[in-house]
Amino acid sequence: MSAAPEPLLRVSALRRHFGGGRSFLRTQRTIRAVEDVSLTLRIGETLGLVGESGCGKSTTGRMIVGLERPSGGEILFKGRDLTGLTPKDWQRQRRDIQMIFQNPQSALDPRLSIGRQIREPLDLHGIGERGGRDAEVLRLMQAVALAPEMADRFPHQISGGQAQRVVIARALAMKPSLIVCDEPVSALDVSVQATVTELLQELQERFDIAYLFISHDLRVVKKLSHRIAVMYLGQIVEEGPTDPVYRRPLHPYTMALLAAIPDLSASRATRPVRLAGDPPSPANPPAGCHFHTRCPYARPRCSAEMPALRPLGEGHSVRCHFAGELGVAS
Amino acid sequence: MPGRLFLTKLARGLLTVWLIVTLTFVALNLSGDPIEALVGDQAPAEVIAHYREKFGLDRPLWQQYVSYVSGIAQGDFGLSLSDQRPAIELIAAALPRTLRLGLTAFVLGLLLGVGLGIVAALNRNRAIDRFVMSFAVLGFSLPNFFLGILLILLFSLHWRLLPSSGDQTIWHLILPAVTLGTHFAGTFARFTRSAMLEVLSKQYVVAARAKGVPRPRRVLWHALPNAAIPIITIIGLKLGDLVAGSIIVETVFAVPGVGRLLVNAVTSRDFALVQAILIMTSITMVLANLAVDAIYALIDPRMRAARSES
């Protein structure tokens, strides 16, 4: 563990601002959707990225798969910076980084049969022999536990759980080493969620795939992730191995999120923190610590000075001036 | 069974045609005495009686109706009152000109409209988009007779480039086809743009990008066929405008087609001919809508499924 090799993915100081342009008669406000996000992901590892909606976690994922252009920062994938790639280079790069979407039904072209949906990336990227591709489609379907006769069905004829399996199979077709999962199970029934997360875990072990698992559901994230990153208003406020973060959260925001999960005994160690109101607008983030407006422990320093993300041992980092001093009833 | 649904649609279409046959019959009988219009109100009584007998107008109304409907079922639309020839013959003589004009305008409008709509959607809110959409609004809001006269003024009178009336050569086709086609192009451009914008924002198009599908293939293979569904609906509806438009355009450009035939038939109260044209038109519309349904099934698997389940 200590002799850490170069990680699969290293994102540093990633930023994405929207708007800010000046057009006729008006100046648009800049929306800082993502502000200084850094994270690393090793081969075969899952990083859970959690936060409220609008905190920039999806934008971060979209930048990593190249659907969104970063305003600044660096995305090193297998040692290569992706931010400077031309669209043509991206076309080739995409084989290695795939994405799974929140709403699987709408991620499938309604006009194409399941078999053709899965086959398309094979044809596009010239993977395998032309004649062997049908067999490869069946192998992929088997890998995600879809019956072979489903190949002739159309998206509207299958369930949401099956559709997500198709999307996963389509992503697997390119043998990616990283899959960005953007809320992959939140649109599914709870019973189906479990089978899909189990499938994702099983595929990870078989094919050594790394996941960036974006979700607002802390229970799902806990089950899947090796490490957790918590985002608030475009910044990572706490990051660390799953267990310590859940057992002993150090940032008040993480504490509040965990306290909000009904029936999760881990949060009992901390005093229940309840979040009031909505997060502030990313067009006009509060000065100092972005969280101070909603933080029950806020002190004068918090509104004056932005805390840095600082390591507190065991790979656990926190963006809070008073981390470790708060609310822990030992 | 796909066949069963098709038969239902066919039966519905036949019902529509029958309703139109009946409504035409009622409306024209309410609109006045055709014999009076034919021979004038000064004509002697025996002349009027002679014509009444000749056209079967002396019989009770229900008998006229029954013989008319059974005639139509056998392809007999009766004699033109003013011309004494079978109405169907007159229509057949005028039809090729109308078809040539209508189809040219339609294809022109479709290609131009769908093409421009795609370009506009791909360049949303940029200058090209604004320009194309201005053209589209202009295209479908300018009345056909106005645009036609404008084109005649410019191309025939001012620059003397193209003939303004008649249909002797291919050159005669250009102005009327452009007049009629501009209207369709405007409508199709607008609908194509909005249908494409909706589909382009769909997740499967984003997903296609994420899996490395090149842009032309994304647009033409994933987006356009899915956007085609609302576009085809509009095409089906616009076929009715084609008939209405050709009546005006043929009158403006003096093309002796079915549209002009209809206008003349109405002014001379040519009972049988008006009926025949209206019925032929409605049959065309019914067939066109059946064709649209068939095309739906071809491009949209959801429609196919709806068929196989019913």
Automatic annotation (TrEMBL), chain A:
The keyword ATP-binding applies. InterPro entries: AAA+_ATPase (IPR003593), ABC_transp_ATP-bind (IPR050319), ABC_transporter-like_ATP-bd (IPR003439), ABC_transporter-like_CS (IPR017871), Oligopep_ABC_C (IPR013563), P-loop_NTPase (IPR027417). Keywords: ATP-binding, Nucleotide-binding, Transport. PROSITE patterns: ABC_TRANSPORTER_1 (PS00211), ABC_TRANSPORTER_2 (PS50893). It is found in: Cell inner membrane. It is a peripheral membrane protein. Its main location: membrane. It holds the Pfam family oligo_HPY. Gene3D superfamilies: P-loop containing nucleotide triphosphate hydrolases. Residues 9-258 form the ABC transporter domain. The keyword Transcription regulation does not apply. SMART domains: AAA (SM00382). It comes from the Bacteria. GO terms for molecular function: ATP binding. PANTHER family: D,D-DIPEPTIDE TRANSPORT ATP-BINDING PROTEIN DDPF-RELATED, TRANSPORT ATP-BINDING PROTEIN. Belongs to the ABC transporter superfamily. NCBIfam families: oligo_HPY. This is Peptide/nickel transport system ATP-binding protein/oligopeptide transport system ATP-binding protein. It comes from Bosea robiniae.
From TrEMBL, chain B:
Signal peptide: none annotated. Keywords: Cell membrane, Membrane, Transmembrane, Transmembrane helix, Transport. The keyword Metal-binding does not apply. Residues 95-296 form the ABC transmembrane type-1 domain. PROSITE patterns: ABC_TM1 (PS50928). The chain crosses the membrane at residues 12-30, 103-123, 135-157, 169-189, 219-237, 243-263, 275-299. It is a multi-pass membrane protein. The keyword Membrane applies. It is found in: Cell membrane. Belongs to the binding-protein-dependent transport system permease family. This is Peptide/nickel transport system permease protein. It comes from Bosea robiniae. The lineage of its organism: Bacteria, Pseudomonadati, Pseudomonadota, Alphaproteobacteria, Hyphomicrobiales.
